[in-house]
Amino acid sequence: MDYEVEVVEAPERQTAVVPLSTTWPELPAEAGSAFDEVWAFVRKEEGLRFDGHNVILYLDGVPNVEVGVIVTRTFPPEGRVQASVLPAATVARTVHRGGYDKLADAHQAVRAWCQAEGHEVVGPRWEIYGDWDDEHPELVETEVCWLL
User: Fold this and answer.
1) pLDDT, tens only, 75-133
2) Cys bridge to 128: 38, 65, 77, 143, which one at CB 3.0-4.6 A?
3) What span, in angstroms and rounded, lies between the C-alpha atoms of 78 and 80?
4) CA separation for the pair 114, 3 (Å, rounded)
5) Which helix H or strand E contains 15, and what residues bound it?
6) Edge-to-edge strands of the sheet including 6-10?
7) Nearest residue to 94 via CA among 113, 69, 122, 68
8) Which of 1-32 are b and which e, b meaning 16 or more Cβ less than 10 Å from the residue's Cβ?
9) What are the pLDDT digits (tens) for 70-86?
10) Which string of DSSP letters, residue by residue, matches 60-125?
């Protein structure tokens, strides 16, 4: 798949997240559980609305991550669910279309483009997941952003 990469100013976005320190093999299962936990919290928290999509913020390569959802406001922590943000920042951004099994290709494309264009990535990166479509998974869009 060919990826179009661009440099954009990403806005700050409020999130409800569960922070995890995990391993790459364990991340999919742990993220699924964390998404469930965040969604249960968002559904019961009065006045807190979902205002976007699921997200994973990768803080480093360990991976230490924040798994959650974009929301409309901050809130006090409850259990493992905490208020956080996707930072306002200059990022290299692309959009992956299709299933998540090839999502790593989008990350590689951003890193390769940045190297070729002389942009230094500084580590944190995130994925914002579009709405899933069982009938047309090839149309699902995931935004991939790397902090510059």
Assistant:
1) 999 999 999 999 999 999 999 999 899 999 999 999 999 999 999 999 899 999 998 88
2) 143
3) 6
4) 12
5) strand 13-21
6) 6-10, 89-97, 141-147, 125-129, 50-58, 64-71, 13-21, 82-86
7) 113
8) eebebeeeebeebbbbbbbbebeeeebeebbe
9) 999 999 999 999 999 99
10) SSS-EEEEEEEESS----BTTBEEEEEPPEEEEEEEEES-GGGHHHHHHHHHHHHHHHTPPP-S-E
Cross-strand partners of 70: 15
And the tokens for 32? 């699924």
Residue 130, amino acid: G
Per-residue pLDDT for 51 more than 80?
Answer: no
Judged by DSSP in three states, 49 sits in coil
Instruction: Assess whether pLDDT exceeds 80 at residue 50.
Output: no
Q: Which amino acid is at 53?
A: H
